[in-house]
Amino acid sequence: MSEETNNETTPVEETPTAETTEETTTEVVEEAPVLNPVLALAADARYTATGKRKTAVARVTLKPGTGVITVNGRELNEYFPRPTLQMTAKESLEKVNSVDKVDVIARVHGGGVAAQAGAVRHGIARALLEANADLRGELKRAGFLTRDARVKERKKAGLKKARKRPQFSKR
Prior knowledge:
This protein is of the alpha+beta class. The protein has helices spanning 2-31, 76-79, 83-95, 113-131, 136-142; strands at 47-53, 56-64, 69-71, 74-75, 102-109. Strands 1-2-5-3-4 form a five-stranded mixed beta sheet. The chain is elongated, with a radius of gyration of 25 Å. The termini are far apart.
């Protein structure tokens, strides 16, 4: 019985060592792709851009600061109470590691809250591009510079909605 115990112990000891090695490798790989660009803004610099999503339009202004994001005169977490919307609005800043380096002032109108968050993200990405043209590759790869053209399809004559047809009756 003691021989069986030894056989069981040996594989158990090897398995955690292998898992630990894999975890360490995985952590290093995750840290490597983080971009560390130089976003040097002049003290009085202002960069403006317009972002759009569905029918929402956001006029965004970037200026050097401490990372305060204001949307329609209110703080980001007050205007977008859901964490997913806050994350969506800040994604382009996080992608280029500029969250604590710039203040964002956004004026948004039209659309719903999700479309407005997407419009703010698009506007911030375009304003970052004005500030530093070297960020274009990273922002474009992430898809933040592309205007999401998906909008609600219009209702057609003879149909109940955009594509829904009235029920067919043979007799």
